[in-house]
Amino acid sequence: MFAELRVAVVVPAFNEELNVARTVRDVPAFVDHVLVIDDASHDRTFLEASRMRRRGLEVLQHPKNRGVGAAIATGYRRALELGVDAVAVMAGDGQMDPRDLPSLLQPIVDGAADYVKGNRFARGDVWRVMPPARVAGNVALSMITKVTSGYWRLFDSQCGYTVASRRALAVIDAAGLFPRYGYPNDLLARLHAARLRVEDVGVRAVYGPNWRSGIRLTTVVYPMSFVLLRSWMRRLWATRVAPVEVAAAVETEQRCASAS
Ligand SMILES: Nc1nc2c(ncn2[C@@H]2O[C@H](COP(=O)(O)OP(=O)(O)O)[C@@H](O)[C@H]2O)c(=O)[nH]1
Ligand SMILES: [Mg+2]
Fold it and tell me: Which of 90, 87, 37, 82 is nearest to 59 (CA)?
């Protein structure tokens, strides 16, 4: 529990045998459920995660690789079944600093946000820690995502360190989330379409000695352009063309939630 909230942490992991056990071990003790999603890894990720002894640990497995967005959607679904109030994402490569989790949860505790995301650029050391090519890519995608999502105040769209409230997950249909790397951009546009409140909180950038990424410019540009365009169109449709229908859907969900 964190304050009055029951909290789950979702850990998407693909070929993370070197990092996943440490990631699970370092999840703060106040977290009630740790849900590792092994995305059909070719290595010992599943065994490394399963050997950890920790209250509330579950290691789920995709029979086939589906991508980081789909792994997170699987974790969200399980967390909703478990009835938690807030769900954080901490990637299985240990790039999220556990010391930042309380400040990401706080706006949900305060009732000030429905979804909170990390912003590594809010801290001055990002320029020293993050490799220059990643700085350039993250700045460019953050600027584009301001337009596509409509959240002009937010930055660092690609930061995967996030906390979603139960209400946000119930409203946005996480199962339909883009399955691969464009998922944060898709998610932000969905959150805006549903009129949910999103806040940025400064978090540490972590690029340890084992750091590597599955992102390859050649394979990511095409799907990324597609997901940005699609999420932009959908968001415009929901906020400009059919706002009444969206508002009605959100209201129905709120009524169901308060009745249950
Ligand atoms: N590359 C990759 N990562 C995945 C996949 N499914 C889950 N993940 C996990 O998603 C997280 C983020 O991926 P990563 O390549 O580190 O992205 P980056 O941190 O944005 O460079 C890591 O913990 C991966 O283990 C997948 O299909 N491919
Ligand atoms: Mg990573």
Answer: 37
- Which ligand does the CA of 37 lie closest to? 1
- Indicate which atom in ligand 1 lies nearest the CA of residue 212: 16
Dmax (CA) for the chain in angstroms is 51
Nearest protein Cα to ligand 1, atom 17: 213
- Rounded to the nearest whole angstrom, what is the distance from the C-alpha of residue 148 to the centroid of ligand 2? 23
* Domain 7-259 architecture: Alpha-Beta Complex (3.90)
Q: Give 219 Cα–ligand 1 centroid separation in angstroms.
A: 14
Output the pLDDT for position 222. 86
Say how far apart CA 144 and CA 141 lie, in whole Å: 5
Say what the pTM is.
Answer: 0.92
Residues 194-208, mean pLDDT to the nearest whole number: 95
pLDDT score recorded for residue 217: 77
d(CA 248, CA 29): 39
Q: Where are the domains of the chain?
A: 7-259
pLDDT of residue 119: 98
Checking if the pLDDT of 250 tops 80, the result is: no
Q: What pLDDT, in 10s, does the model give residues 147-161?
A: 999 999 999 999 999
Cβ of 95 closer than 6 Å to ligand 1, yes or no, is yes
Q: How far is the centre of ligand 2, averaged over its atoms, from the C-alpha of 220 (Å)?
A: 15
Per-residue CA distances from 113 to 27, 51, 91, 135, 146 (Å): 22, 36, 22, 27, 18
